[in-house]
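[Automated response] Your request has been received and processed.

Submitted sequence:
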Amino acid sequence: MKLSDLFIPEFDQEMATARKTLERIPEDKLSWKPHEKSMPLDRLAGHIAELAGWAVPTIEQDSLDFRPPGQPPPFQPTFATSQKQVLGVFDKNREASRRSIAGASDEHLMKTWTLLSGGTTILSMPRFAVLRTFCINHIIHHRAQLGVYLRLNNIPVPSVYGPSADEGTLG
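Generated structure:
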């Protein structure tokens, strides 16, 4: 069995729960944040939508420099302007990532990928490890943050790995 075949079910599960959480963002509180050092809700939701697409450069490029010397940054931050907008970005990115993952050979997934900032290496590891840690675990982390934002705004938190205090069912 290919590594991508092993990874796709986990990817699909985590993307489904991330989407379910994004579906709950309150459009009237997009600028809200729990602390002065926290991301505002619109940026946090946008970041989750961005993360859904990070498998594409991980698989299709050998490296990514967030701030390439002498060039503009390759990405502009995404900010949610509405549920519909952020879900559209998320869905587009999720599908592109899924296609890239499904099409990757084991040999390619074991090749080293590098993340840089201003030409300085931040991390360098096999693509498969990047998919698991930098893509999936990263989205899980921010999805959990968004769950806290929902809770603090009295918005029902969806069940993810088990029942939440608001939903007594799985899934």
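Summary generated for your ticket: Residues 29 and 153 are 9 Å apart (CA to CA). Residues 127-152 form the longest helix (26 residues).
If you did not submit this request, please reply to this message.
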